Amino acid sequence: MNNVFVYCELEGTTVADVSLELLTKGRKLANQLNCQLEAIVAGKGLDGVEKQVLPYGVDKLHIFDAPGLFPYTSLPHSSILINLFKEEKPQICLMGATVIGRDLGPRVSSALTSGLTADCTSLEIGNHEDKKAGITYENLLYQIRPAFGGNIVATIINPEHRPQMATVREGVMKKEILDTHYKGKVEKHDVAKYVQETDYVVKVIDRHVEKAKHNLKGAPIVVAGGYGVGSKENFDLLFDLAKELHAEVGASRAAVDAGFCDHDRQIGQTGLTVRPKLYIACGISGQIQHIAGMQDAGIIISINNDENAPINTIADYVINGTVEEVLPKMIKYYKQNTK
Ligand SMILES: Cc1cc2nc3c(=O)[nH]c(=O)nc-3n(C[C@H](O)[C@H](O)[C@H](O)COP(=O)(O)OP(=O)(O)OC[C@H]3O[C@@H](n4cnc5c(N)ncnc54)[C@H](O)[C@@H]3O)c2cc1C
Hints:
By secondary structure, the chain is an alpha/beta fold.
């Protein structure tokens, strides 16, 4: 009762990275709240799925295994969460800010009148004093995210309603195994008790999943370009440097909007979050929405023709110059020095 729950997304029988990241965060929140961490998986053919989940410090895994539960459709998964939460009364529920999480989260929170904060960038535990009502609420979930176009960072709370629900994008939290032999309980539920036959009204006839064209999220080096790169052709310089460094190419939203680079390479608040060892920002000014997706990089190099560009304040090294003059030199000297 009143535990922290994480809904684990599945691709086939593999738990999504974003869910493992949230289990890691959920474990920390549960420790602070002195309660248990519980996880939910719903899919088909889930024998052994606990091996993927329990090592993240999960005290109890709820398994819903039935042919109609994969691929994901809205109604059966919503019914599972709504009915399980009516029994278990969690204080917190976390899920990925993915296509599935964005569909499932609002349905569940609306049915339970609980409230939901989407796309949180940080989750913390803290108190809140309602001075007007003279009430102090203890151990609330601070659901922290940029608001008003990123101009402020808002801390959102649900003092009265439970569960406190939040979605988080992939890559925002770090995933970390707690103990490979962590002893958690596994409960296999009778799916028919939670899902009605009519919930299976939508049948997925054909499903096409496109493979990611790059590995930006896991790349140790990212060469990212902004509007200052100037053109799609100039972006080729970034690809050339990336090839030499065995890096991946990322982009700011302005560069994506200008058509210099594909959307799936966008880094930032509404794109990917990356944590490479080295981030080379080329012609990127460093607005807060971009920084949100790369500020945890180990070393940041900024190449910019404006020495006062905001990104320079968080960069470890600043190269003052244009992308067109600096990148060809970097490629040339890197090649020379690694011969
Ligand atoms: C709700 C919301 C969400 C957003 N989400 C994102 C997001 O996920 N990711 C994101 O990136 N942005 C996001 N943005 C947009 C963000 O506010 C900025 O507009 C964007 O990051 C700016 O991109 P930029 O730095 O490439 O362009 P600019 O701000 O135009 O900066 C270009 C930089 O290039 C430099 N420059 C110009 N010419 C050269 C040259 N030849 N060589 C070297 N340097 C040069 C300039 O000095 C400047 O510093 C979001 C905005 C909103 C409102």
